[in-house]
Amino acid sequence: MTTETPAAGLGDTDKERIKEMVCDVLELEVDEVSDVSLFKEEHEADSLGAIEILAKLERTYNITLEQSELSRMVNLSGVYAVVAEARSR
To answer: Which residue, among 89, 66, 80, 5, has the nearest Cα to 35 in the 3D structure?
Structure first.
């Protein structure tokens, strides 16, 4: 039996687009960020950057994300999961 992760609802194109957005906000090269690298601890992201990422995701995907979701958006895997869940609502 296999279980799907919440991010399974996102295709490769969406994941690439999200990664590019995050890297743009954090002023990083795409190859510097992995799905599990931590934004704050490994890439020196601050809370304003996190809010900017949230706002860009809302505009791009026409979704609503609560600021409480920021605590889950610590890396790309978390961002993918939050976006996939919001799109499935």
So the answer is: 80
